[in-house]
Amino acid sequence: MHKVLELRPPNALAKLGDDSKVCLLNGKDVVRVLRDDPVIIMAVNARIKHVVPGIMRAAEDLDAAICFELALTEGGLDGGYTGQDPATYWRMIVDAAEGTGFTRPFFIHRDHTTVKDNSTERIEYARRLLRVSLDEGYTSFSIDASFNELPENIRITADLARPINDAGLGLEVEVGEIA
To answer: Quick one: which of 10, 43, 75, 102 could link to 70 by a disulfide (CB 3.0–4.6 Å)?
Structure first.
């Protein structure tokens, strides 16, 4: 297990501390390692803390890796409809992992960072949300600018993805419809 803990990305380790045994990994690494295995990584939008310990116990029993995620509407900078901003969500998941002694690999995913148009306001909000989530220890990200025409989607996505790519973390993007 010690070797697995060495794989924790710097942004997560900075929040966890060197003495932590929490196995919060880079989403990119988890997917890469399991790519050829016949497995499913369950993505859980855990909107309330009461479900997280049970999900972790099930993952322990099944020897499963897991993804905890919140979409923009569920938990943006303002907390979304769950009241959980990135720091609150990260802390909820990590507290549960520490409290239950959870040993399985997992990642925390910033899901559906949506940019519905190419306005500076929407792009800058997404940039702030991604930056805060990165700083708070999230280890996987999703950017969805697919509401825009393909050239704009590509431009916006490439721009917003830069710090995530620079950190070497997991990244998922939405292409949208290609005719």
So the answer is: 75
